[in-house]
Amino acid sequence: MTATSAETIVRPARARTAADSADVRRRQGFQHGGWFVAPFLALFALFVVWPLLRGLYLSFTDANISGDSANFIGLDNYREALKDPLMWDALGHSAYFTLLVVPCITVLALLLAMLAHHIERGKWLWRLCFFLPFLLPSTVAANLWQWLFNPGTGMVNHVFGLETPWLTDKSYAMLAVVITTLWWTVGFSFLLYLAALQGIPAHLYEAAKLDGANAWHRILHITLPMLRNITGLVVALQILASLQVFDQAVVIQDFGPGPEDSTRTFVQYTLEQGFTSYRVGYASAISIIFFVLIAAVALARMWLLRNREEGGR
User: Fold this and answer.
1) How far apart are alpha carbons 187 and 141 in whole angstroms?
2) What gap in Å lies between CA 172 and CA 177, rounded to an integer?
3) Are 200 and 222 within 8 A, CB to CB?
4) Is the CA virtual torsion 182, 188, 191, 197 positive or negative?
5) In the beta sheet, which residues pair with residue 285?
6) How far, in Å, CA of 279 to CA of 273, rounded?
7) What averages of pLDDT result for each successive group of 10 residues across the chain (313 residues)?
8) Distance between CA atoms of 186 and 190, rounded to whole angstroms?
């Protein structure tokens, strides 16, 4: 009885001592690690958190760019924004651009990655050609395609024998921005797909060949399922980036909204309100609305991904 009682007493004591030691090590690790992440947290707070909070405050005021004292007006800016047809038109243009770009860039990036992955001769050259446009600044890419789409001297109409007014007709203006974006940004998604393709085990294809699967069956039953996660990532990144389109749409139209305002995006409209109409408070309100929409898209993507993973289990 005595030995048993002593053992019963000693074991919890040893367990508590080990737990206390683990807690001490954990606290020490957090303290030391905190010094490494402190610079990032400081920059994040300075350039992300503070502007967001400042913009949220200004959205409830009638602040203007002149710096005069801002008066608190409550939800007036938000009420005006919800009734503003120009804001909804700009949001519709951004959504339309997103609907065109995301499927096209996903499919095109996948096809280019598969082509570069299977080509044997000059593989490095193909990869360089597909990725190189992504390294160009947005203004360079937009100015290049502005020249290519020029109805008089542009190569697009000349090569294909067309007389399409790409930049002056509202039916084609947004399509010109889409083509420019595809050429300029497909390299990023191409690189993601290429890295994912290189990570697929070769023995899966070898086993499929032995079972008599042709090339199409191998793509359909091995390649595409193995690329499911990277495809979800590409689609999510492209949706978030496309909704925020600004640079190429503005530059290709010489900093204007395009024919009949057909290429005015949400970001462009926000900047026009803030720096052209000098309504900083109203611009802050519509930027907060846009932030909420972007956050909702990101959260919806995370929710769908989590449900798919749970369903896969």
Assistant:
1) 13
2) 9
3) yes
4) negative
5) none
6) 6
7) 50 54 59 76 90 92 80 93 94 95 96 90 87 93 94 87 90 95 95 93 88 87 91 92 93 91 94 91 94 89 76 58
8) 6
Q: Closest Cα partner for 243 from 191, 294, 300, 284?
A: 294
Write the secondary structure of 13-43 as one string of H (helix), E (strand) and C (coil). Answer: HHHHHHHHHHHHHHHHHHHHHHHHHHHHHHH
194 contacts 153 by C-beta, under 8 angstroms? no
Q: What is residue 76's predicted lDDT score, i.e. its pLDDT?
A: 94
**What is the pTM for the complete model shown?**
0.84
Residue 42 has which token pair? 């400081």
Cα separation, 290 vs 52, in Å, equals 12
Contacts of 100 (CB under 8 A, 6+ apart): 174, 175, 178
What gap in Å lies between CA 98 and CA 102, rounded to an integer?
Answer: 6
How far is residue 59's CA from residue 52's CA, in Å, rounded to a whole number? 11
Place of tokens 């947290």: 41
What CA–CA distance (Å, rounded) separates 287 from 196? 35
Other beta carbons within 10 angstroms of residue 123's beta carbon come to 12
Q: Encode the chain in three state secondary structure.
A: CHHHHHHHHHHHHHHHHHHHHHHHHHHHHHHHHHHHHHHHHHHHHHHHHHHHHHHHHHCCECCCCCCCCCCECCCHHHHHHHCCHHHHHHHHHHHHHHHHHHHHHHHHHHHHHHHHHHCCCCHHHHHHHHHHHHHCCHHHHHHHHHHHCCCCCCHHHHHHCCCCCCCCCHHHHHHHHHHHHHHHHHHHHHHHHHHHHHCCCHHHHHHHHHCCCCHHHHHHHHHHHHCHHHHHHHHHHHHHHHHCCCHHHHHCCCCCCCHHHCCCCHHHHHHHHHHCCCCHHHHHHHHHHHHHHHHHHHHHHHHHHHHHHHHHC
